[in-house]
Amino acid sequence: MALIQCPAGQPASVPALLHRNAKQFANAPAYREKEYGIWQSWTWSQTRDEVEALALGFLELGLKEGDFVSVIGRNRPYLYWAMMAAEMCGAVPVPLYQDANAEEMAYVMNHCGARFAVVGDQEQVDKILDIQGQLPEFERMIYLDPRGLRKYDPATLDQYTSVQEMGRKNRDKHIKELEARQAKLDYDSTGVMLYTSGTTGKPKGVVLSNRNVIETAKSSSEFDKLRQTDEILAYLPMAWVGDFIFSVGQALWTGFCTNCPESAETMHVDLREIGPTYYFAPPRVFETQLTNVMIRMEDASRFKKKLFDYYMAVARKVGPAILDGKDVSFGDKLKYRLGELFIYGPLKNTLGFSRVRVGYTAGEAIGPEIFDFYRSLGINLKQLYGQTEATVFITAQPDGQVRSDTVGITCPGVELKIADNGEVFYRSPGVFVEYYKNPESTADTKDAEGWVATGDAGFVEPDTGHLRIIDRAKDVGKMADGSLFAPKYVENKLKFFPNILEVVVFGNGKDECTAFINIDLTAVGNWAERNNIGYASYQELARHPQVMDTIQSHVEEVNKSVAQDEMLSGCQVHRFVVLHKELDADDGELTRTRKVRRRIIEEKYHDIITALYDGSPQVSTETEVTYEDGRKGSIKATLEVRSAKVMPVAHKMAAQ
């Protein structure tokens, strides 16, 4: 595939887009942040000035072309500006997950050789100070929030605003150098380096060029007709490729406004206040919001509950059709409009979705019932499929072609092919440049013609062109009898129940499948409160007999569904345990994007897996855990091993 060159007159870098917006949309809002309960706003012209001042300050501190600048903290305009300022200086921004532990930070910063770090607050400063001895190339740390840092040694610490002031004072000294560095930036210059989640090993540094960022932002914005007047809420991790493309790439391409919430705790309140028109969330966020709605309706009066149930039935019947512009009878339209007045409108306002024009979910499969619920309210929720190496977008669902069982058609400029083993390959203008310092993995993932292996198994529907993803290719295996083993298929079905937060299914090479299950503490805890059931901890609630019975009923219901699929009917869960703790990224069991690390879980809980397969009715175990302050501890528990009813498989039923 020939590389797309930057069209004449089009900005060729992220800083060039910023300068364009400062002229074209000078007084339009670019970034907002809520602080101390008040929304503060910066126009595109002001944003350019803030970024330029920081870049000049970087030069005064000695930032060189090609240096790496780590950016760590919650979503704040200042940290987005730090990434832009780094590239403006010819350096490479490397955002890190703010909840990463010191060991994870040390690996990434050491791997890229970061000389500078821009951090949000004292927590991040402390983490870096703890690992500074492991970072031979690290020199300077710039902090944003000064609270708690008054008595820290200022030798390697600079306050963000002080660096900007330093840049303004020395503008005449450095402005020509800064302009010269910006002039060198083109489509092939590195725009950002983002690290993979590391599900199977150490994270890899994915190098994305300005071509990757700009072409992807351009095509995806045109695909969904994004506008300069759109609004988004930036609350997902800044180290995740999706947030970078939405909050930097698309924001700069279209000129729309990026809004940053005050904190994770106020996110839903801030969402309501902003009322974004463009919104993204992983399935877990939509599931949690729906769970909260249903919990509130359980506590509502009988009349309100009856009204809600009636109009939601109307919405399920005709809502998606009305959203897609299909023909609906006058009577149904009238009922739906009344439902909008009494139920859907107030509910969307409560959720913060009143103005959503384009909504996306991705990362995991979303339950059809959950997906259809939001679309029935008139929310244009769609699915996309992508990865860091693609600069997000591989496939997406066009308006009018939205389904819960596919991830859409190829995005503009993307080509797909399916290998003989079912693995999905793609190539596009968004294909990453390389894995930093890892030519072997680069060659394994991307071939000479630019085709990239996704690691996912799937197929393209011949009649519609929609892509359907089955599972991770490396996780797809065979049962002992040779039947297909696809754990994600079963896990996603179980996670559709609001009582279940996480699932890990085992069975590759075995005679039968078994599972670990985490309950959703919010949903199950609310049930316990309504039924006057006391509990002191997650562990105590998880082993309550009624909770175990409920989870067993969910497993058996899924088994019925799985049994209908002849190809995957061997994946029914025979035995399961409800784990005594939630799987946690701090304990290495999940990635920072909440993907399961199967191999680590298999090693860590080998005693429980053994009990699942040897017929034991219970198992005693001791597990190491990490507390919020980083200390290690352990918890002991005796877990009940439950057997679930297994249904006759599809081909056997057919034979009968």
CATH superfamily of the largest domain: ANL, N-terminal domain
Number of strands: 29
- Average predicted confidence as pLDDT: 92
**End-to-end span in angstroms?**
52 Å
Low-pLDDT sequence parts: 652-656
Portion of residues in helices? 40-55%
Number of helices: 22
Q: Trace the largest sheet across and list its strands.
A: 4-3-5-6-7
The CATH class of the largest domain is Alpha Beta
Shape: globular
- Share of β-strand residues: 15-25%
How is the topology of this model organized?
Blueprint: H1 14-24, E1 29-35, E2 38-43, H2 44-61, E3 68-72, H3 77-88, E4 92-96, H4 102-112, E5 116-119, H5 122-131, E6 140-143, E7 157-159, H6 160-169, H7 171-184, E8 190-195, E9 205-209, H8 210-223, E10 231-233, H9 241-254, E11 257-260, H10 267-274, E12 278-280, H11 283-298, H12 302-323, H13 330-351, E13 358-361, H14 368-376, E14 381-387, E15 392-396, E16 409-410, E17 415-418, E18 423-427, E19 434-435, H15 439-445, E20 452-460, E21 467-472, E22 477-478, E23 484-485, H16 487-495, E24 500-506, E25 513-519, H17 521-530, H18 538-542, H19 545-563, E26 573-578, H20 598-604, H21 606-614, E27 618-626, E28 632-640, E29 642-643, H22 650-655
Parallel strand pairs: 1-11, 3-4, 3-5, 5-6, 6-7, 10-11, 12-13, 13-14, 25-26
Antiparallel strand pairs: 1-2, 8-9, 9-19, 14-15, 15-16, 17-18, 18-20, 20-21, 22-23, 24-25, 26-29, 27-28
In short:
The chain has 656 residues and is α/β, with parallel strands linked by helices.
